[in-house]
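Bug report

Summary: structure tokens for Secretion protein EspD differ between web form and batch submission.
Environment: batch mode, default settings.
Steps: 1) Submit the sequence below via batch. 2) Compare with the web form result.

Sequence submitted:
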Amino acid sequence: MWDAWDDAEDCDDDGHLHGDLAALDFLAIDEQQPQADGSSENPAAPESEQPEEASPLFTVTNPSGSVAVTTAINGCVHHVELAPKVTNMTEGELAQEIRVIADLARLKALSVTHAFLVEGLGGIGYDPSAISASLSHGLCMPTPEQADEAAAHEFARRYGGDPDW
């Protein structure tokens, strides 16, 4: 048979410690309080625990400026921005537009990674053209030129007859 659950003897009903461990209460951080300047960083945290600098982000915006997608350097979507004029689009049109622009932003980010790797590995003695070919074909990582061509082709295909473009 189970005994009734009871609080630890060192704790009172409000959960505060009153035994030997009570002296460590000053170390507990209940919530991260905002600082006077509005930031919420913990200035007492060691440098290794401070937030790292933001990684590079890459944004592609459609020609009408209604949809902008920002991706991280690995191609993952970071955020999507929509202009008020998207209310003129159907849900399906908006979804398709976001998907297309997100794919172009992903290609842009991966192309920067491609260029970085080719330059870095070329600088330590590897053949840049062989590295580029391996990245393009083996990992489907476009060159910056391929990403630009894909964006130009997609924009011409989708907006070529649009007078706003």
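Above is the batch result. After comparison, the two runs are identical; trailing whitespace caused the diff. Helices lie at 91-123, 128-138, 144-159. The first strand starts at residue 57 and ends at 61.
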